[in-house]
Amino acid sequence: MSTPPRRRGRPRRTLLSAPSIYLAALDLLDREGSDAFSLVKLAKELGVQMASLYNHVDNREQVIQGVRGLLAAEIGGSIPDRAGWEQMLGEWARSYRAVFARHPNTVKLLATTPVKTAAVLDQYEQVVVALENSGWPLSEVLWLMTALESFVLGSVLDMVAPEQMIDLSADAHAHPRLMAAKDASPPQNRADAAFEFGLAALLAGFRERLTKGG
Predict the structure, then answer these.
(1) Residue 12, in any domain of the structure
(2) What CATH number does residue 181 fall under?
(3) CA gap 65, 70 in Å, rounded
(4) Quick check: 65 and 117 in contact, CB under 8 A?
């Protein structure tokens, strides 16, 4: 007498939690971009009903802030306090850029959503304290941070652009000096070289402003 086949158990489902929802949202953004992002798609991605999501998150904004927190953790939770302000900003900018370069589809969404995530606000607080302790007037600190972040996020978009953004193949003779400038550029990664050039220029400008007292 043959033994009856064992009944399979219930299929395993994703164990939902706020952190698992944030991770799935980041993965969805990485693959499909911010324009395609929605909680409906996220629920489908997780194999659950929308109501199940709302047992763990309040709304779409909380998910976005959760994604921002994941990226903040990748950037690093500690701003070096022993370094000078220029070295601190340089290290922060490079780390910031490297993380968003891994997740460029988040830039549009996060750059247009107010920051409420505690981990990000903690990083900002550390930067403000470090700059103020270095002699920066408090009235200029947010301007400095915004200028630096705008440059970094612009560089992230440049990193995912084609290596050759200036196409002179149609009529190079009409733009001889532009062609010469292209030919004179060192044979290295354009986006990385431009980022380091621009970062150095920004820091030099900040240094001059601080030295002259605004």
Answers:
(1) no
(2) 1.10.357.10
(3) 9
(4) yes
Taking the C-alpha atoms of residue 50 and residue 26, their distance in angstroms, rounded to an integer, is: 17
Q: Is the pLDDT of residue 140 over 90?
A: yes
Q: How many CB atoms lie within 10 A of CB 88?
A: 19
Tokens describing residue 136: 């920066």
Per-residue pLDDT tens over the stretch 19-33? 999 999 999 999 999
User: Comparing 6-20, 32-46, 87-101, which segment has the lowest mean pLDDT?
Assistant: 6-20
Q: Which of these ranges, 1-10, 147-156, 162-171, has the smallest mean pLDDT?
A: 1-10
Kindly tell me the number of DSSP H helices and DSSP E strands found in the chain.
10, 0
Cα 68 to its chain centre, rounded Å, is: 8
* Chain CA centroid to CA 188, Å: 24
Is the CB of residue 16 less than 8 Å from the CB of residue 48? yes
Structural domains in the chain (count): 1
Burial level of 208, CB count in 10 A (0-12/13-18/19+)? exposed
Cα–Cα distances in Å, from 173 out to 169, 176, 182, 184, 187?
Answer: 10, 5, 13, 16, 22
| pTM: predicted TM-score of the whole model, two decimal places | 0.82
Q: Is residue 40 part of a domain?
A: no
Separation between Cα atoms, residue 130 and residue 80, nearest integer Å:
9
Q: Is residue 37 part of a domain?
A: no
Range of the domain at 188: 77-212
The whole-angstrom separation of Cα 16 and Cα 36 is 22
